[in-house]
Amino acid sequence: MLKPLLISLATLLAPATFTYAHVTTAMVAPADRIATAREVIANMQAAVAKGDADAYLALVDRAEHEWWHEQKAWAKDIAAKTPTAITITPGDDWTIGTFSDLPSVEVSLTWVWTPQADERVAAPQPKEDEQEPAQPRERELTFRGRFIERDGGLLYAGEAWQLVQREGVIVAFDPGLETAANAAAEAFAKIRADVEAELDVLGGPISTRTQRIKLYGSMRHLQHSIYPSYVFPLSGWNEPDESIKAVSRPDATEKSFIALLAHEYGHVASFELGPKANSMPWWILEGIAELMVDRHDENLAMRSRDQVKKWVKEDAMTPLAELADFEKVPLKLHGRVYRQGHDMMRFVTRHYGKADRNSWLRAMSSGESIEAAAQRELTESWDDVQAAWRSEIEQDLAAVPAEVPAEAPAGATGEPAKK
Fold first, then answer.
1. For the purposes of burial, counting CB atoms within 10 Å of the CB of 23, is it exposed (0-12), middle (13-18) or buried (19 or more)?
2. Given the DSSP bridges, would you call strands 102-114 and 25-26 parallel, antiparallel or unpaired?
3. Cα separations (Å) of 267 from 187, 209, 277, 280, 313?
4. Which of 21, 205, 235, 364 could make an S-S bridge to 415, C-beta 3.0–4.6 Å?
5. How far, in Å, CA of 163 to CA of 184, rounded?
């Protein structure tokens, strides 16, 4: 999704230079353009309220590849999980100008919506004077939105971001996050080649692609950018053809971005393995991403192994098959997706080697089942692979008792939810 301030990609300066891209603005917008924007906003609200994905997307600008794919996912969500209430209210701070040489108008947008209840999250407890559980809480968010004129009409183009550009990366960010944006750009340059090499995609199309990263000043904004029903806590997100998204503090440093971007770019690289990569089991997708963090966090592997040893000792391991579908895994098990997935992917790498591991991943990314891919690429049945992993954990447990907190952190990046 996107955010405030006046910027244009066309005016970005040379790589390795921090810059704001500017649009030409005037503080008083012509009445006709304001009226048109108000109509677009009203139609957006009506489409969301009805769960009409097609009507909503007809109001969205399609020029930026990642934005368009993000909005398609957003629209799919409103059709499947239509908010029970929604208002989108423009402020009084209208400005007009041009963006990418096209007429544009900007204004603060306040979104107020109530998501449908999610069965993966424990229902809120009823208040003492209520007989039924409380309804999902109303959510509110304000950011500055942009509308671009095309073919005589205005289209919603998301937030009016500020931007930082480096070679191979553009970081879009909320006002006040310019220091963090520069740090993120520098961190990305340091993790990029290693991630691509680990998954054998270095030198492919991904290596020359400009990666987009979006930094949000609040988790609420990041959640809203994913889709309106998203309520799980998280610090980062990535899906095929979308930007890497992350929550950031104003004082975030390059070091603080290394693990998070290694994890998220691990997702980006894994989607290069085949057309059905994102259909691999969720624990594999997160396990791959956590593997990319290993070289930057020397304690992550130990934390994952200590946690799974604890679960084995307590006979509380969750079958991997129950951690495969993001849409079905309950929130209380999200941490296991990361820890069990990471430990299993490390086991596969150690015992079969990086080349066979990646061949196994490519086979699944081309549509093979996990069982068929294991038999062909790892030359063992999937049941045998799992049994060997369990046996190794038990041997490790017998040698050194596990000492970990009652529940370890969900992910190296601090994201207990998706991607």
1. buried
2. unpaired
3. 16, 15, 10, 12, 31
4. 235
5. 12
Beta strands per DSSP E along 28-91: 85-90
Question: What is the pTM for the complete model shown?
Answer: 0.86
In tens, the pLDDT along 52-94 reads 999 999 999 999 999 999 999 999 999 999 999 999 999 999 9
Of the pLDDT bands very low, low, confident and very high (cuts 50, 70, 90), residue 16 is very low
Q: What are phi and psi of 58, to 5 degrees?
A: -65, -15
Q: H/E element holding 370? A: helix 370-373
**CA distance linking residue 230 with residue 74, whole number of Å:** 10
Sign of CA dihedral 279, 285, 263, 190: negative
Q: Which residues pair with residue 247 across a beta bridge? A: 216
pLDDT tens-digit readout, 269-303: 999 999 999 999 999 999 999 999 999 999 999 99
Q: What pLDDT band is residue 123 in, cutting at 50, 70 and 90? A: very low
Reading phi first (left if > 0) and then psi (alpha if -120 to 50, else beta), residue 418 is in: beta
Mean pLDDT of the chain: 88
Nearest-10 crossing angle of helices 282-291, 254-270: 140
CA 246 to chain centre: 7
Going along the chain from its start, the domains and CATH numbers come out as 21-118+137-160 (3.10.450.50), 275-419 (no CATH)
Q: Which two tokens stand for residue 411?
A: 């992910």
